[in-house]
Amino acid sequence: MTDQDAPPSTTARTVLVTGATGYIGSRLIPRLLRDGHTVRAAVTDLDKVRGRWWADRVELVRMDVLDAATVEEAVDGVDAVYYLIHGMGGADFALKDRASAENMAWAVAAAGVGTVVYLSGLVPDVPEEQLSEHITSRLEVERILSGASSGTRTLTLRAAIVSGSGSTSFEIVRQISERMPVQAVPGWMDSRVQPIAVVDVVEALAGALHAESESRSYDVGGPERMPYTTLLDRYAEAAGLSRPQVSVPGLPTDLVGVLAGAITDVPASTVEALVESLHHDMVCHDVDWTYDLLPEDYSLVGVDESFRRALALPDESVPVEERDPLGPMPGDPVWAGGQGGGLASAVAGARAVVTGLTGRLRTSPR
Q1: Hey, which residues does 16 pair with through a beta bridge?
Q2: Which SUPFAM superfamilies does the record associate with it (predicted)?
Q3: Which pLDDT value is given to residue 197?
Q4: Do 96 and 66 form a contact (C-beta atoms < 8 A)?
Q5: In principle, which of 9, 244, 325, 332 could form an S-S bond with 166, CB 3.0–4.6 Å?
């Protein structure tokens, strides 16, 4: 069975999707509608969602997760909540993550919501004091949702690199590959990653509603593990690019994050947070999710196929609701999409490196 063939659910529910206009949320909502669920889409700005093709098929509700009153109103009367909210940058992102999770945990407990499904990040097998700020915050949110939501079943899906056009991690790989004719790779960047196609993430999220397990976390990843440098090679091959790699020892993590943020169009704070996580293997510890969350005989999408489908240009003659979610979709971030890897991309990358280094030197203490 493929990601496009999953059968509809026989148990329809009323479901709140937070982060509805985000990358995952905007692809999950059509999947839930196909299953026959009643979807309530929570957004901070109603105007930003009205152009989506599914907007007239869902109940739209304005919710600011830092405003407890709006959270309480949003969860009232729903059977399940998808928590797809992540802070990725700024000095206070962990504080906001904590406050947001506490508001949601209190609201779902008070409303008697049956299930919360949280999409988090893979937690490497290292002591917690060695985790990045990004992963530490995700783990804290998971514990708040699981511990404070008394009586609510909380299922956390932990994913690392999500592959698909418009995905933050995919766009970083795409734009670095296009804009760096020679890839200077830090000597410490030999950790393994386990990418997962966005269609497989969405399938697992949809299946979590009907999983028979009690509150727990699931590591979700695709069928292949590889060093991050190999992932860059695989992307370059899929995109038809020649990108030799040069290992550079001694590059500090923060400098790599600054340069990667300068090279790409992805928000710099997001890039820096993700780079910090690459010091450790980001791979699944088990395969329980494939049994508990996916339909029988479901086939996971491999890395090369996910890249091929993500890079395919959309057929404008095909209705949006019938397009491949791995490819570009209306509403994806404005910084998504590549420039083709030509001379202009290389020049842009070189300028970005110079700009990043100059900014680094100017802000370094003397």
Answers
A1: 40, 81
A2: NAD(P)-binding Rossmann-fold domains (SSF51735)
A3: 98
A4: yes
A5: 332
- Kindly give, in sequence order, each residue whose CB lies less than 8 Å from that of residue 189, ignoring residues fewer than 6 positions away: 227, 228, 229, 256, 278
Cα 25 to the center of its chain, rounded Å = 10
Which strand (E) or helix (H) includes residue 33? Answer: helix 23-34
Nearest CA to 169 among 205, 106, 222? 222
Helix (H) or strand (E) segment spanning residue 155:
strand 153-159
Q: List all residues 6 or more positions away from 364 whose beta carbon is below 8 Å from its beta carbon.
A: none
- Best CA proximity match to 106, nearest among 151, 137, 173: 151
Q: Which residues on adjacent β-strands are paired with residue 196?
A: 162
Q: How far apart are CA 58 and CA 40, in angstroms?
A: 6
Q: What is the pLDDT of residue 190?
A: 85
Q: What pTM was estimated for this model as a whole?
A: 0.89
Total residues belonging to the chain:
366
Choose which CATH entry (3.40.50.720, 3.30.70.270, 2.60.370.10, 2.30.30.90) describes domain 14-360: 3.40.50.720
Residue 342 is predicted with a pLDDT of: 45
Taking each helix axis from N to C terminus, what angle separates 168-179 and 343-363, rounded to the nearest 10 degrees? 100
pLDDT for the residue 340: 52
Cα–Cα distance, 38 to 284 (Å, whole number):
32
| Amino acid (one-letter) located at 159 | A
Count helices and strands (H / E) in the chain. Answer: 12, 13
Q: What is the per-residue pLDDT for 186?
A: 84
